Amino acid sequence: MSRWSFSMGSAYQFHSWRVFVVVCALPCVSAVVALTFMPESPRFLLENGKHDEAWMVLKQIHDTNMRARGEPERVFTVNRIKVPKQLDELVEMQNESANPVLKVLYKIKAELRGIWLTFMKCFDYPVKDNTIKLAIVWFTLSFGYYGLAVWFPDVIKHLQADDYASRVKIHNNERIEDFTFNFTLENQIHRNGMFLNDRFISMKIRSVTFIDSSFLNCYFEDVSSVGSYFQNCTFVDSFFYNTDVDDAKLTNSRVINSSFHHNKTGCQMTFDADYSAYWVYFVNFLGTLAVLPGNIVSALLMDKIGRLSMLGGSMVLSGISCFFLWFGTSESMMIFMLCLYNGLSISAWNSLDVVTAELYPTDRRGTGFGFCNAMCKLAAVLGNLIFGSLVGITKAIPILLASSVLVAGGLVGLRLPDTRANVLM
Which UniProt keywords apply (predicted)? Predict the structure, then answer.
């Protein structure tokens, strides 16, 4: 990991994970910069008395749409604009003296009351049923998606661990005398071993356990022991220099007339020592890469097959693909199913965004979308907690839970009204 690092002066050291965090933050910074070039909402401008600016934004939207339809000559005309009363005017009407403190308090109260009334309108006719159904779809899709996102990498890790453990080498009752170890020992178990006058120099010990072994007059220099332990071992007249062997790795072991000098400190683990650490990122990269064809397909077919067909079909197929994870017995098969699941679920996310925006009228669209997103975040938290608690315990419950939730949500999504040919309210 030290290869991917740089420094700024003598005070700041940027290692690989820090660079990774900075790179991940770049899209967010770019989005903030891009927002400064986007026009404000015409409704917001009208509510704040900026009629000319609102008209210019509407004209820009009209001209852009007409050019996309191949009719750039169409002229933008406005017959009537209903301007809502501005909040400041309501404050003045409520408080003739225009006391600054009371004006601020009333403005805050009016804002909160307006938010609450708008929220409650999402549960009035004719959008009440749509709000409930959308909340269910958002909740189920988020619960299954984010829950599996926590569970999946650990499944891969357990498969790797099982495969690694199946290849362990066991040495019993060995006796090694006057030998120099200057190579890597990996994935081994040594029981009742006797090491006499041996030298362990410039070597790595990876996932090796010494049990009931004795080390007499041994010399350890520049040794790294990742995932290795000495259980019930005895060290007599031994010398340790520049090693990471400490009390945490000497389990119930006796150290007699031995000394430790210049011990290594900090984490000694690298991607070379623990390949699974790199593999987790690579698997997530493959899963994210599988989203690309799903985005392309949903963009091309959204208007042809309909929002509801894509939403419900994608969720049902995602649930079915999730169920087949039960039969995954190898890393390659599990990774393939992960990519298939991500490719299908992204189509559901895309169509759900469109359906949610098109089912609400303008005065309730932002609030309704925000409520559905709140249900999404709640489901993500619950999914992380529930699926995280099942990591390493059982494979059946997470798979059945995610599959059933996704299929149920997809069937509810098919009951939503079709908005493909509707004019936005």
Answer: Cytoplasmic vesicle, Glycoprotein, Membrane, Neurotransmitter transport, Phosphoprotein, Synapse, Transmembrane, Transmembrane helix, Transport
